[in-house]
Amino acid sequence: MMKNKEEKIKDSVVKSSFTVGLMTFVSRISGFLRDVVFASYFGAGSNTDAFFVAFKIPNFFRRLFAEGAFIQSFVPVLNDYKVNRQQDLKKFISYVQGNLGFVLIIIVTAGIFFSDHVIGTFAPGFETSSNRFNLSSNMLQITFPYLFFISLTAMSAGILNTYDKFLLPSITPVLLNISLIMFAVFASGLIQEPIMSLAYGVFVAGILQYLIQIPSLIKMDLFVLPRISLKFEGVNRVLKLMLPAMLGTAVVQINLIIDSIVASLLVAGSISWLYYSDRLVELPLGIFGIAIATVILPKLSENYSKNSMAEYSEMIRRALKIALVFSLPAMFGLLVLAEHVISTLFQYGNFTITDTLMSSLSLVTYAVGLPAFILMKVLLTGFFSRQDTLTPVKYGAIAVMFNIVMNLSVILYYFKNPFQGAHALLALATSLSAWLQVILLYRRLSREGIIGKNCFLNSDFYKSLVSCIVMSMLLILLLPELSKWISYKYYLRGLYIVAYVILGALTYLLLMKIFKTNFRRMVYGNN
User: Fold this and answer.
1) Which string of b and e fits 101-123 if b means at least 16 CB within 10 Å?
2) pTM of structure
């Protein structure tokens, strides 16, 4: 009976991970369509730099406060109320929602009112008298309210995920992409400054993403009116966990925003090149890293609340193994296909061959850190599920300082000896800092006995590495030169890139099968 129950739990985790991964894939594909529209309509220049900064700022705070520190702090406490204090659950949600909303109103109002100062801080390379600076400041006043709505959306998603409802939250981001595409295509021609249409698209998307969550919450009888109070015990627990968790959960995002700040000091287009390459890295990150972490956080929190430490450790170990075995081929694939993927997706309209080459440079250096970005998502759940937010803060601070030093080194050298591709070194610094944080987090969990010392360097890893090398060699032999590739019609490029991706994936899986890799054991454990 107990074994059947454990199997059901494992099946539930696998199915939920598949659901989140699949819906995230759909979301990322719609995101690529969105970026294709961006590249075709607006290219990669000073105006797109201005929008990407105006969009990245509320997005950064969203990932820092809402989807980062807040969710990692809120879900474990919510799960505790669900398991042990059901009678106070709705009151807890009400007070958290009220306090979160109140803080968000203050932040959003300040962001709108001081938009010039915010842009000056996040993009110091934008001259205050330039059109790029003024355009970015005006767009930020429109995009910043997005933070309010998307943060409430994230809270709603946390509630739904705790009750094993992953479909709606994971498909919700598609609304943002649809909204931006619609505004770019149909509204850009109606506005004096076409790029401004994207700012309005962000604002509308925030409202839609929150509204679509409400019917599910009503159906679950968990849609409550907000109340404000810092005296409620559950709110204080969330705050104590959240404040230190801001850095621990958002190191990658902090590093990306640092990249953007420094890139504003480089040649025009650098911010856009970093944006397009980062978007491609986010596809496997969302499918594997975010999907796995989203699903296992409530399960780990529940195991910890019930003191089921054997199941707790087993789940983390399997999640790490799955993340590593599937992130390595994604990394090698991006390294080999970088130029061809960028060209296929974006080199149309105002997006030039130079933009392709520059974006592919930063894609390669971001790809080096892809396994670390994914592993970090899993490792952090090992701390947040136990309501330990201080440890990730220490390691996060070290990683951020490392990235800052690396970025400053790049920019100081660039000022003395300007060179092409400096933005790619900023991406490399982010990747290396992610690896540094992964090593620190892994060593700590290993010392505490949560995970074994051979979670990474084991037979499955070596099988995966050899398979990736063979897969890469095959793709390199078959890929045509970029000059020939860009002469193909757009639909041929699309068909060919899909064929190469499928060929690479099948080659990898076939080799892993030849090496007798037991994927079922990897997913379900030894039972």
Assistant:
1) eeebeebbeebeeebbebbeebb
2) 0.69
